[in-house]
From TrEMBL:
InterPro entries, per database record: GrpE, GrpE_head
One function term, GO molecular function aspect: protein-folding chaperone binding
Record SUPFAM superfamilies: Head domain of nucleotide exchange factor GrpE
Pfam families, per database record: GrpE (PF01025)
Keyword Chaperone: yes
Record key words, sorted: Chaperone
Biological process, per Gene Ontology: protein folding
Protein name from the UniProt record: Nucleotide exchange factor GrpE
Lineage: Bacteria, Bacillati, Cyanobacteriota, Cyanophyceae, Nostocales
Stored Gene3D superfamilies: Head domain of nucleotide exchange factor GrpE
């Protein structure tokens, strides 16, 4: 039987160049694998931090719910503090988002909508406002950096002649 595999002759220069390039590729491969491991470790740590912060928000909500569950007839003092308590939980949650560059979109009722930032979900007949004016913000929107993460949902005025 004859050897059917072809034999290639390469110059010593080409062989050295190939060996050098293989060495560089192996070095790059090791560096990329190390970088990937570091990124995975960093991502895991960031994810754990996010979940721990969200658990603080959940704990605050759970404490309020537990109090209400265990006190079916809450004191007037508690009921008076409840909006502030819920506001504090909301601020905590928004600060968790803020740390991750997720910021609320600031739109005002009585202004014209910026359709890059909001979505009109309904229109209502209004004679006291110009057509297309925001009458109500239904759901707050958020930006992730410069990107609209979630558009603000609004209701706009619909004039008789609009």
């Amino acid at each position: 039987m004859s050897d059917l595999s072809p034999n290639y002759l390469i110059t010593l220069e080409l062989r050295d160049l190939l060996v050098e390039k293989l060495g560089v590729l192996q070095k790059n491969n090791v560096a990329l694998q190390q970088s990937l491991r570091e990124q995975q470790t960093q991502t895991t740590a960031q994810t754990e931090d996010l979940f721990l912060e969200l658990l603080e928000v959940a704990d605050a909500l759970e404490a309020l719910l537990n109090y209400l569950e265990n006190n079916p007839d809450p004191s007037p003092e508690f009921m008076e503090r409840l909006p502030k308590s819920i506001g504090a939980v909301n601020r905590k949650f928004l600060s968790v988002l803020n740390k991750r560059q997720i910021l609320p979109i600031e739109l005002q009722e009585g202004t014209e909508p910026d359709f890059n930032l909001c979505r009109v979900i309904d229109r209502e007949e209004r004679t006291d406002m110009p057509d297309q004016t925001i009458t109500k913000i239904v759901r707050r929107g958020f930006l992730l950096g410069e990107k609209v993460f979630r558009p603000t949902e609004v209701i706009t005025a619909k004039s008789d002649n609009g």
